[in-house]
Specification:
Shape: globular
Distance between the termini: 23 Å
Largest sheet: none
Strand content: under 5%
Radius of gyration: 17 Å
Number of strands: 0
Length: 245
């Protein structure tokens, strides 16, 4: 990860485009793909997390400045900051202690498929508040273990609001940004890695290209297309996780 790998550079452009459109992508798909390439899970997290944080930060600023009427859902924010973020730390602890004993990837696949099936069967109703809290907790837990919990967060958000596309993108980007920041800080603390060695600024331009492409494409996406795109990303992530399990 210390030299430019042009295949990974192209991959980051594609994943950054996905993340700009749907709020997720760099971590959800990038983590299992790079592990399939043979990279270590912790180094992969430390490599991808800054790229994801950069993407979400720029997109949050862009939407906040140029799209009118966007605000953060306070109720979802309470669930996120008081339930989801602490569970990230729990997930990282489990990763460190039980990585050799538990097949976390199969567990995550099962949870993603459960939420996808439940969303399909329960099209007319939003999730109950108790179910939202459970999904939020599981999101943080699984994100701490594999970097892939954002798919659950996105599924929850697109299911929870009868709002336009930009409102939903704004919620996902905001909460996913803080999820990535907390994950980044926690993994440095728990694993005590020399994380500066994993930072590779050569891939920042690839993220920026993806931001430009993603915002251009997002202008022509409607609500149903966003929901389907998020579901496709979540399902694809689960397949990658299943492949490397």
């Amino acid at each position: 990860m210390y030299e430019i790998n042009y295949l990974i550079f192209l991959l980051i452009i594609i994943l950054s485009t996905f993340q700009t459109i749907a709020g997720i992508g760099i971590l959800v798909l990038g983590t299992p793909i790079l592990i399939l390439f043979g990279f270590d899970i912790v180094k992969t997290m430390l490599f991808l997390l800054p790229l994801s944080i950069f993407n979400s930060t720029i997109n949050f600023i862009y939407l906040h400045k140029f799209k009118k009427g966007l605000s953060i859902d306070i109720n979802m924010g309470k669930y996120f900051f008081f339930i989801c973020l602490p569970s990230v730390f729990v997930g990282l602890f489990f990763l460190k202690k039980f990585i050799s004993y538990i097949n976390f990837n199969l567990l995550i696949c099962f949870v993603i498929w459960f939420v996808l099936i439940f969303s399909y069967l329960d099209k007319e109703r939003n999730f109950s508040e108790n179910l939202k809290k459970i999904i939020i907790f599981v999101t943080g837990l699984l994100h701490g273990v594999t970097n892939s919990g954002g798919s659950l967060l996105s599924l929850l958000i697109v299911k929870s609001y009868d709002k336009d596309v930009n409102y939903k993108r704004f919620q996902i980007i905001f909460f996913y940004l803080f999820l990535a920041i907390f994950q980044f800080v926690s993994i440095i603390f728990i694993f005590k890695k020399e994380f500066l060695d994993s930072l590779d600024y050569y891939y920042i331009p690839a993220v920026f290209v993806g931001i430009l492409l993603g915002n251009f494409l997002a202008n022509s996406i409607n609500d149903n297309q966003l929901k389907n795109f998020v579901k496709i990303l979540a399902f694809t992530s689960s397949i990658f996780l299943l492949t490397k399990s």
